[in-house]
Design a protein that fits this description.
Helices cover 62% and strands 0% of the residues. It has helices spanning 27-62, 69-105, 120-125, 133-143.
């Protein structure tokens, strides 16, 4: 699980998808996940900026305007929903940042509990996974 810093300089071919025939978490695979997670991070940041700008613009546009109770309730509900979605996105952003940190320190793709390989199939399906399937199932059983 040594840190593999050269993933940032890897140029991936178009439509590259990690393969099981490659060494687990080789520079190409790390580059793939780094680019995937970085793109998701940028999209979330843009969505949050747009959401907050929308809430701000709506609030400014409606300040001082005395609407009826129904209009005010609808506006408040829309604002609350927008802010909840931004909060959910912020939680996802935290997990993405943690995954990017694991790529940087060479622990991405390995269980935070046992250090075992999580597995390429699982990482492709859930790039934010931090445990093997068995460990995740055990964790979920304990939380019930």
């Amino acid at each position: 699980m040594a840190a593999k810093k050269d993933y940032k300089s890897v140029v991936l071919p178009p439509k590259y998808v990690p393969k099981k025939s490659e060494p687990y978490m080789c520079p190409e695979q790390l580059a793939y996940f780094y680019q995937l997670l970085s793109t998701q991070k940028d999209e979330i940041l843009n969505q949050n900026v747009n959401a907050l700008n929308s809430v701000s613009a709506t609030t400014k546009a409606n300040s001082g305007i005395a609407g009826d109770e129904s209009d005010n309730a609808t506006l408040e509900q829309e604002t609350t929903l927008t802010l909840r979605m931004a909060e959910r996105d912020n939680n996802l952003l935290l997990k993405i940042n943690q995954a990017l940190e694991r790529i940087e320190n060479g622990t991405f793709g390995y269980s935070v509990i046992s250090g075992e390989e999580i597995g390429l199939s699982r990482m492709l399906a859930r790039p934010l996974a931090t445990m093997t399937i068995d460990e995740q199932e055990e964790h979920e059983k304990r939380e019930l």
